[in-house]
Every structure is written in structure tokens, then in C-alpha cells.
Amino acid sequence: KGELRIQSLSFDDAGMYQCIAENAHGIIYANAELKIVASPPTFELNPMKKKILAAKGGRVIIECKPKAAPKPKFSWSKGTELLVNGSRIHIWDDGSLEIINITKLDEGRYTCFAENNRGKANSTGVLEMTEATRITLAPLNVDVTVGENATMQCIASHDPTLDLTFIWSLNGFVIDFEKEHEHYERNVMV
């Protein structure tokens, strides 16, 4: 194949590599630079979100994406408690923390620790639980004679600290009320 494999790279392996292919009709060259990257974990470019919202009874994924080479090992804590994989908590290979069936007890300060052979770093965010959004009155099937008007209702309950937006779609395509104002009308009841 003309393939060069280098195992267990060190900084001495960095530099310009040249592949030479030749046969009875001639010779050609190709060059490539190999850079060796090594750095301790850092969250400077991608810190954890300072505030993470999760719906009651729902699921949340808190990302932990430091820059590091080689890939770091990850661990998590909630306050001073070290977290381990369990029935509701899972630490992914990429460092993300997943929590399912969120309760009020899950609220608090979460810290992601990243460590490789070059060093270690951590980043912290606060998880807050919100009330889950629920459809309390769903649209009903409607039979309407052609040419008449039809009205469909949708009412939802939500956490009062959050804004709520209703999006209507027809056969999977979102309705643009500004472009189609002559055909569709949105009535918002407060």
C-alpha cells in the first residue's frame, strides 16, 4: 500500500515526511508535515454552561468538552460527592454527564474533571430543575366542509420562569404565519 505507520508517537517523530514512488518510467514525490500535539486539558475555549436547565422527570446531558491531547479521563462530582455510573447517572466516553428522571434532589453544582498525562483541569455549572411543559388541551380531529373555516386549539402548562412558544405544522412542515397570513391565523390567548 505504500503506508507508513508510526506507533507510540513522541515529539521526535514530528517533521516533514516524504513519500517517493518510482518505477521504470520515472519517479514522483509527495510531502506531508506531521505535527505532534500535546496539551493539558483546558476549558478556556469551551467552558461548561454556568446554568443548566432540566425538566422535572426528564433527561439532561451536561457536556464536558475541554481541549486536551491525548484524550483525557473524565470524572464528575455534585458538590463534594464523586459521581459514578448508576441507574440514573451515566458518564459517557466523551465526558458528557447524563441524568434521567430528573428530580429536585438533582439540583446543584456539577463539576467535570479532566486529566491526561500533561495535566488536569475542571469546570463547573449549576443544574436547576424546571417544571415540565405539558400539553393540557391537544388539537382534536375536525371534519369541516370545504370553503368553511376551521379552528384548532392547543393549550399547554409550563414553568412560569420560562417563555413558551407554540409551533404549528402541517404534514411535518412548519407553518409560516407571516407568509401565509391570508390562509392561517394565530390567536394567542393569555
Task: List the keywords.
single chain, 190 residues, mainly beta, Immunoglobulin-like, 3-stranded antiparallel beta sheet, 16 strands, glycoprotein
Describe this structure in words.
The chain is 0% helix and 43% strand. By secondary structure, it is mainly β. The protein folds into 2 domains: 40-130, Immunoglobulins (Immunoglobulin-like); 133-189, no CATH class. The strands form 6 sheets. It has a 5-stranded mixed sheet with strand order 4-12-11-7-8, with no helix packed on it. The chain has a 3-stranded antiparallel sheet with strand order 5-10-9, with no helix packed on it. A two-stranded antiparallel ribbon has the order 1-2. A hairpin with a 2-residue loop joins strand 11 (108-116) and strand 12 (119-130). It is flat, with a radius of gyration of 28 Å. The mean pLDDT is 92.
Could you tell me the strand content as a percent range? 35-45%
CATH fold-level name of the largest domain? Immunoglobulin-like
Oligomer: single chain
The number of helical segments is: 0
Specify the biggest β-sheet: 5 strands, mixed
Distance between termini?
Answer: 69 Å
> Can you count the beta strands?
16
Bulk shape? flat
Give helix % range: under 10%
Structural class: mainly beta
Identify low-pLDDT runs: none
Give average pLDDT, whole number: 92
Q: What Rg, in angstroms, do the CA atoms define?
A: 28 Å
CATH second-level architecture of the largest domain: Sandwich
Tell me the name of the CATH homologous superfamily of the largest domain. Immunoglobulins
Give the strand order, joined by hyphens, for the main sheet.
Answer: 4-12-11-7-8
The H/E string reads: EEEEEEEEEEEEEEEE
Tally of distinct domains: 2
Name the CATH class of the largest domain.
Mainly Beta
Keywords: Disulfide bond, Glycoprotein, Immunoglobulin domain, Membrane, Repeat
GO molecular function: cell-cell adhesion mediator activity
GO cellular component, one term: plasma membrane
Domain Ig-like: 41-128
